[in-house]
């Protein structure tokens, strides 16, 4: 049998590989010191099983030699796998209806042993160290394949409720299982379409019950790694088990999508933590949404996240936007919500550029009411007063673009008072800002009656480039629009490098030096000459600080 | 069939009236009387010429293809004369060549000849009258020209070079008589003024030659007569001549002196050599005097050499004297008030300059807008150099990948007029350091341009005379001798070397060492010193940071002095010092942007002392601002040390902006956040839009004992409080932060968004006052709160709606195609001026080249033809000669032959 030969050769190879790697446990080290003997013994037992039935008890011996889950004897596991594969393939584990009673007893006994072996494999996957986990996973999958192929009536059952379920659970629950899960995804779930399908099904089922955070993390890691969404016309033929071809579900594109969708929904419905929610939102657009044949199902999750506030809301925006745009999702008070996101921390958050990209899209429409746009402009201007230069640099061109699209709002830059009475009152009492920062509804803030004093003040920003940018609003609006993308990704470090360069370069213009050398910088040197009162440059510092 | 040629000729002659009915005699006479005959003849000739032309079809060349209609074409339309006369042009060219080329050809390979240099003689464009006029103009011009006052020969020359005709002067004004007269006089004066003889002789001889014997006789006759009384004119002349003679003698004496001195100078090196005890190298043997073998005349000329030289030298000197500068009145010494006034003016100018830079001067803005326009064009068309146009770049922003140090649009304007004084730290600055305090600060203020030279000289001398420095120090006691400072130190080339040099120097003596290094390596002492001092200044910057980072805190007086040294060096080496500062800032930003060392803070403090931080853009101040802002914006606030550092940075920022009053969001954010962290109770609601950062452990002020009083913060608080003094430090920090807010509210009171900026400040201060422990004094707090409140109400009063767009309305861009009113296909309407110009030049070049080639070809033809002709001539000559000879020979031979024949016949006859 070719598969068998394959099995032995591959297992040997694996073993040799393992011999090469440093032995991790003492026990195995012992086993390998008396390696030849133990190997011979194993081979002998294996031979005997294949020779005759009367040596079937050797199976029990082998299983007993398997050792604890944490520290398994892998050679034994491999040989057991070979034994069972042979038995299954040769039909010794199927009971014919006409077979004798004692035969049935033997078959039942064998099945019992097989189950025992499967349990211990799952145990190894759960608790073993990384390399034995992977070996056990490979063995388990091989055995699974044999069962699905040769055992009558097990071709679907073994996937859905049988051995595969145990395998998936074990993989998910495996401790320190990053390597294992990566192996599972790379070698099986991504490569074979039936494995992928059944993995999704199993995970959907598994995650539908309440799970703890760590498990959810593992699940998310697995299913987010499976990111090869099939095309609608895709022909499914890349199967792990030959028997899967007969299964209509595995051949259907919709079934695949549904399975994935269910799995994701199960995960999203779980009690996920704040950080998990954020990471899920981050992969939402690229990884999760393509699986969904009905993305509307994501609506609840996204709106929930959006209502969460803070960074989570920012992250939910893009998913939500996708739904609004593509799936006709009606989100009442979207702009109000968006407006509420403009808070003190926004401009200091690391998601700033992402948010501005989205906001650029949301506010692109020229059909939005001017009052609303004015509120956004005013709010951004207010925030700019406390923003780092990197953010101001984005805000001002953004506001410029808004003004360009909504010329009605330019009253915020230029408002001549013509009414004499109003003029008089202005002269007498000055004015308050009509803008109401506490108002939640952007349509009611009266921002359009206000002026952008904030941006005007930023024209006196300490950084000359920022000041120059702030000045564009006071100049004539000759430019069609500014490409926001060019302004988004600045950092302090980038600006420093922009100013200083990374290496020395000769000056184009020699910097000016203060013409007067101060009499004192730190100390009270020659103070009595100035009549004891320090008014020279730097007196402020000397007044506040004691340099001694 | 057209009539025959003869008939045509006859008819055309008749038509043009050349031949006609015979005129009567009366008519002829009448014509002769009125002069109509002449006119008639001219007309006749013209008519005949025309007829001749018409009957000679080969004289006129018509266009190759006859134009059937009048058409306008790109180039042909405007040509007026289509009939060329190839014969005429050809013969013209031929004539011209004969005049020039042929002459040249004939002269080829021949040396010598007379060149006619008379004005306009070889200029064919000038008529004889013009030539005469030009010559006359030239001559009178020469006469009128006022030669320099030292030209002794002037008046003589004037007479000497004159246009004459047969000895008669051609000048007009009463010239002839006077000239004759003086000419005769000259003969008289000959004996009296020998000195004049060489100049006059030529003239006299000429006269004699020209005028013939008559004048000679006269002269001789006069010579024989007793001396007659001299006229006034003659006397004057004599006096002048004498004075000139004496002058010449004096000069001669002076020259002799000079020669003597020169000779002495020449010997000086030998003298030095002898003094040094080195044997002078054997002098090269003077060239052998082998004049004997020479032509005696030539030898005489050579011998005469020196004498000639003196003459030449005299001329030279004379010429030099003409260029001598006349002395000018010197500036009078300024009075004390004027000096003060001037100084004040200068300071005012510098201050204005600073303010201009602070505003980010106008010219740079123009540049910026121009640049933007340019980039717009880029955006639309040019995409080869920059595939994607970056909007942000227009503002000087760039991603960290590409680096240019300064952005053109915001760069400071040229500041070369800034007077650089060489050495500002006076020699006695070490006296200052020893707290003498009697220093004259005025010497710090550098001298104005005029006096700069002197000042430098002084400095120079001061630098040289180290003992003076010594005497200054000895004034303080015997400490100098005791400290064992060397007087000379090498100029270090890197920081390690410097550390090595000052290894054994006490910190307090460091300024003296620096001073001595600077004095010893003053740029005026050696050319390499300038670069050395440049490097030294960079090292000093490094050293200031290094010192401040040392665990044993150096006295700030020393740091200050070094920084002042750096400042003074920065005036002469701005580049090096600035680079050193930038290097330090760069190092900070890459290695420790959020936890600066004490040295970094000292350097940042030095920035405001050395550089004008109020500038709109400054290569050091701007990055320094960014460094502060970055720390304030991103640092953690986990300990009192960090907050102290932050407070220091915030105070530094306010100091930077003391003049320009620019706004820094990070400052407000940090100060408010720090107050919220330090205040006794946490605010329940958000007090403003500033982002909050919280420390890991609470740093709140605890209301403990009332003995705690705020103090002035110390610089070294940035390393953290002393054990047990935390509360005191917290209290001091709060007080300082509140003071900072107080100052900031003053600085920014005229900002249009003052209300928005300071409403959160007000809220935080109110919260602070509310939660302030009862035992502690809250006077500063209350005062600041009141101040902010007044400022806020003031801001409310002054608030007006913005009116930013008082621009001229923009014209809508015209889309009408550009239309030429009177289009001329010959003209080029290239909108690109440069290209049009280039095309024009190209076309001209092509045309010229073509013409030149044609000319050259024709020349070559002509030359070939001429050569052929000459060859033919020569051949013909030869032939003729040959024939003649042959004929001659034949003649002779014939005679002989005849004789022979005769003889033969004779003999035959005999027979």
From TrEMBL, chain A:
Highest rank taxon of the organism: Eukaryota
Pfam families xrefs: CBF
InterPro entries linked: CCAAT-binding_factor (IPR005612), Noc4 (IPR027193)
GO cellular component: a single term: small-subunit processome
Annotated spans, Disordered: 1-35
Gene Ontology biological-process annotations: ribosome biogenesis
Domain CCAAT-binding factor, chain residue ranges per copy: 313-470
Spans through the membrane: 306-324, 358-377, 383-403
Keyword Transmembrane: yes
UniProt KW keywords: Membrane, Transmembrane, Transmembrane helix
Record's compositionally biased regions (Polar residues): 1-10
Family membership: Belongs to the CBF/MAK21 family.
Protein name in the entry: Putative nucleolar protein
From TrEMBL, chain B:
Primary location group: nucleus
Compositional bias ranges of the Acidic residues kind: 152-161, 206-224, 363-389, 437-457
GO BP: any one term: maturation of SSU-rRNA
Residue span of region Disordered: 1-43, 55-96, 113-389, 430-459, 889-911
Keyword Hydrolase applies: no
Biased composition (Basic and acidic residues): 67-84, 128-148, 225-254, 305-318, 325-362, 892-911
Keyword Ligase attached: no
Compositional bias annotation for Polar residues: 1-11
Gene Ontology, cellular component aspect: Noc4p-Nop14p complex; small-subunit processome
Superkingdom: Eukaryota
Cited Pfam families: Nop14
InterPro entries in the cross-refs: Nop14
PANTHER family the record matches: NOP14, NUCLEOLAR PROTEIN 14
Role of this protein: Involved in nucleolar processing of pre-18S ribosomal RNA. Has a role in the nuclear export of 40S pre-ribosomal subunit to the cytoplasm.
Name this protein carries in UniProt: Nop14-like protein
Organism of derivation: Aspergillus taichungensis
Source organism phylogeny: Eukaryota, Fungi, Dikarya, Ascomycota, Pezizomycotina
């Amino acid at each position: 049998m070719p598969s068998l030969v394959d099995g032995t050769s591959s297992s040997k190879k694996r073993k040799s590989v393992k011999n090469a790697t440093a032995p991790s446990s003492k026990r195995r080290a012992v086993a390998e010191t008396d390696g030849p003997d133990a190997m011979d013994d194993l081979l002998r037992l294996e031979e005997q099983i294949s020779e005759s039935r009367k040596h079937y008890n050797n199976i029990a011996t082998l299983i007993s030699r398997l050792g604890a889950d944490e520290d398994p004897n892998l050679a034994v596991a491999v040989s057991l796998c070979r034994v069972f594969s042979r038995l299954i393939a040769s039909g010794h584990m199927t009971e014919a209806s006409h077979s004798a009673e004692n035969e049935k007893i033997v078959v039942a006994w064998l099945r019992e042993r097989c189950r025992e072996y499967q349990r211990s494999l799952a145990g190894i996957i759960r608790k073993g160290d990384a390399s034995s986990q992977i070996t056990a996973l490979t063995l388990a999958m091989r055995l699974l394949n044999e069962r699905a192929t040769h055992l009558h009536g097990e071709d679907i059952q073994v996937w859905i409720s049988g051995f595969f379920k145990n395998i998936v659970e074990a993989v998910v629950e495996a401790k320190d299982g990053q390597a294992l899960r990566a192996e599972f995804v790379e070698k099986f779930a991504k490569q074979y379409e039936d494995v992928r399908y059944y993995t999704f099904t199993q995970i959907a089922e598994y995650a539908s019950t309440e799970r703890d955070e760590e498990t959810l993390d593992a699940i998310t890691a697995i299913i987010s790694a499976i990111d090869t969404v099939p095309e609608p016309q895709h022909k499914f033929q890349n199967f792990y088990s030959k028997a899967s071809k007969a299964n209509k579900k595995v051949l259907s594109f919709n079934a695949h999508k549904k399975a994935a969708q269910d799995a994701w929904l199960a995960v999203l419905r779980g009690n996920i933590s704040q950080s998990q929610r954020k990471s899920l939102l981050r992969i939402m657009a690229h990884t999760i949404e393509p699986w969904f044949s009905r993305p509307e199902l994501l609506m609840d999750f996204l709106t929930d996240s959006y209502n969460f506030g803070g960074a989570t809301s920012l992250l939910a925006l893009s998913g939500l936007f996708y739904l609004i745009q593509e799936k006709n999702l009606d989100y009442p008070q979207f702009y109000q919500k968006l407006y509420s996101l403009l808070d003190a921390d926004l401009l200091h958050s690391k998601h700033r550029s992402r948010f501005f990209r989205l906001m650029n899209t949301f506010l692109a429409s020229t059909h939005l009411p001017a009052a609303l746009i004015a509120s956004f402009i005013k709010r951004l201007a207010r925030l700019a007063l406390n923003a780092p230069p990197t953010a101001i640099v984005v805000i001002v061109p953004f506001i410029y673009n808004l003004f360009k699209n909504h010329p009605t709002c330019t009253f915020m830059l230029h408002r001549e008072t013509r009414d004499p009475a109003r003029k008089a009152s202005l002269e007498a009492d000055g004015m308050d800002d009509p803008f109401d920062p506490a108002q939640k509804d952007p349509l009611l803030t009266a921002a359009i009656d206000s002026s952008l004093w904030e941006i005007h003040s930023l024209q006196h920003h300490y950084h000359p480039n920022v000041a120059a940018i702030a000045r564009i609003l006071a100049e004539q609006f000759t430019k069609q629009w500014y490409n926001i993308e060019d302004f988004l990704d600045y950092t302090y470090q980038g600006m420093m490098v922009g100013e200083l360069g990374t290496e020395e370069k000769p000056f184009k213009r020699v910097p000016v030096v203060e013409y007067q050398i101060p009499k004192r910088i730190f100390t009270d040197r020659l103070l009595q000459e100035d009549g004891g009162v320090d008014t020279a440059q730097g007196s402020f510092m000397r007044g506040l600080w004691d340099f001694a | 069939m057209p009539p025959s040629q003869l008939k045509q000729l006859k008819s055309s002659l008749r038509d043009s009236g050349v031949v006609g009915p015979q005129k009567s005699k009366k008519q002829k006479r009448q014509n002769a009387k009125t002069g109509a005959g002449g006119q008639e003849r001219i007309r006749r000739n013209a008519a005949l010429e025309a007829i001749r032309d018409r009957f000679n079809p080969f004289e006129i060349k018509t266009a190759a293809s006859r134009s059937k209609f009048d058409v306008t074409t790109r180039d042909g339309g405007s040509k007026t004369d289509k009939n060329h006369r190839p014969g005429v042009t050809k013969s013209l060219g031929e004539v011209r060549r004969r005049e020039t080329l042929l002459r040249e050809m004939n002269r080829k390979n021949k040396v010598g000849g007379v060149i006619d240099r008379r004005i306009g003689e070889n200029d064919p464009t000038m008529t004889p009258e013009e030539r005469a006029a030009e010559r006359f103009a030239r001559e009178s011009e020469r006469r009128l020209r006022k030669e320099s006052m030292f030209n002794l020969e002037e008046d003589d020359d004037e007479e000497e070079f004159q246009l004459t005709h047969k000895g008669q002067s051609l000048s007009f004004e009463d010239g002839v008589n006077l000239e004759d007269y003086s000419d005769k006089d000259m003969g008289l004066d000959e004996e009296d003024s020998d000195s004049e003889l060489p100049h006059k002789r030529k003239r006299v001889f000429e006269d004699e030659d020209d005028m013939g014997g008559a004048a000679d006789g006269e002269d001789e006759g006069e010579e024989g007569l007793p001396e007659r009384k001299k006229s006034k004119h003659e006397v004057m002349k004599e006096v002048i001549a004498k004075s000139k003679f004496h002058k010449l003698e004096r000069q001669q004496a002076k020259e002799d002196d000079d020669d003597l001195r020169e000779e002495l100078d020449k010997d000086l090196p030998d003298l030095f050599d002898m003094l040094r005890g080195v044997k002078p190298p054997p002098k090269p043997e003077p060239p052998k005097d082998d004049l004997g073998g020479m032509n005696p005349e030539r030898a005489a000329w050579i011998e005469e050499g020196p004498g000639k030289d003196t003459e030449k030298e005299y001329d030279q000197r004379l010429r030099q004297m003409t260029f001598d500068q006349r002395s000018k009145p010197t500036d009078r010494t300024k009075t004390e008030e004027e000096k003060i006034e001037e100084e004040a003016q200068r300071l005012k100018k510098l201050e204005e300059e600073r303010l201009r830079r602070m505003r980010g001067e106008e010219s740079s803005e123009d540049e910026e807008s121009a640049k933007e326009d340019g980039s717009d064009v880029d955006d639309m068309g040019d995409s080869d150099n920059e595939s994607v146009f970056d909007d942000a770049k227009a503002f000087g922003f760039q991603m960290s990948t590409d680096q240019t140090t300064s952005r053109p649009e915001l760069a400071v304007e040229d500041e070369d007029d800034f007077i650089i004084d060489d050495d500002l730290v006076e020699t006695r600055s070490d006296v200052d350091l020893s707290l003498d305090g009697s220093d004259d600060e005025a010497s710090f203020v550098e001298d104005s341009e005029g006096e700069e030279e002197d000042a430098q000289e002084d400095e120079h001398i001061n630098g040289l005379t180290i003992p003076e420095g010594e005497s200054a120090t000895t004034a303080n006691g015997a400490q100098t001798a005791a400290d064992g400072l060397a007087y000379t130190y090498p100029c270090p080339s890197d920081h390690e070397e410097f550390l090595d040099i000052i290894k054994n120097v006490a910190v307090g003596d460091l300024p003296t060492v620096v001073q001595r290094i600077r004095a010893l390596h003053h740029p005026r002492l050696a050319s390499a010193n300038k670069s050395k001092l440049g490097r030294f200044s960079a090292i000093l910057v490094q050293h200031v940071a290094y010192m401040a980072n040392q665990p044993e805190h150096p006295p700030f007086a020393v740091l200050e002095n070094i920084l002042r040294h750096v400042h003074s060096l920065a005036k002469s080496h701005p580049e090096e010092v600035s680079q050193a500062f930038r290097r330090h800032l760069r190092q900070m930003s890459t290695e420790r942007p959020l936890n600066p060392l004490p040295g970094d803070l000292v350097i940042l403090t030095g920035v405001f002392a050395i550089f004008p931080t109020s500038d709109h853009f400054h290569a050091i101040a701007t990055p320094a601002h960014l460094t502060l802002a970055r720390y304030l914006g991103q640092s953690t606030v986990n300990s009192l040390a960090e907050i102290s550092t932050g407070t220091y940075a915030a105070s530094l920022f306010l100091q930077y902006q003391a003049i320009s009053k620019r706004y820094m969001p990070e400052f407000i954010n940090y100060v408010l956040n720090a107050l919220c962290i330090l205040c006794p109770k946490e605010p329940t609601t958000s007090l403003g839009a500033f982002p909050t950062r919280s420390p890991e452990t609470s740093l709140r002020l605890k209301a403990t004992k009332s003995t705690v009083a705020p103090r002035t913060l110390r610089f070294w608080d940035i390393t953290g409080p002393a054990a047990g003094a935390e509360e005191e430090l917290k209290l001091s920090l709060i007080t300082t932060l509140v003071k900072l807010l107080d100052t900031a509210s003053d600085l920014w009171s005229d900002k249009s968004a003052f209300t928005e900026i300071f409403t959160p400040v007000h809220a935080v201060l109110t919260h602070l006052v509310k939660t302030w422990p009862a035992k502690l004094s809250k006077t500063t707090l209350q005062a600041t709160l009141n101040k902010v409140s007044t400022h806020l109400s003031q801001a409310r009063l002054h608030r007006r709606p913005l009116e930013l767009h008082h621009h001229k309305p923009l014209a809508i861009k015209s889309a009408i195609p550009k239309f030429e009113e009177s289009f001329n296909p010959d003209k080029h309407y290239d909108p690109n001026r440069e290209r049009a110009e280039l095309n024009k030049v190209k076309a001209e070049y092509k045309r010229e080249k073509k013409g030149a080639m044609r000319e050259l070809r024709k020349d070559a033809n002509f030359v070939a033809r001429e050569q052929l002709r000459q060859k033919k001539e020569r051949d013909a000559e030869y032939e003729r000669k040959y024939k003649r000879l042959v004929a001659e020979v034949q003649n002779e031979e014939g005679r002989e032959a005849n004789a022979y024949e005769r003889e033969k016949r004779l003999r035959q006859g005999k027979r």
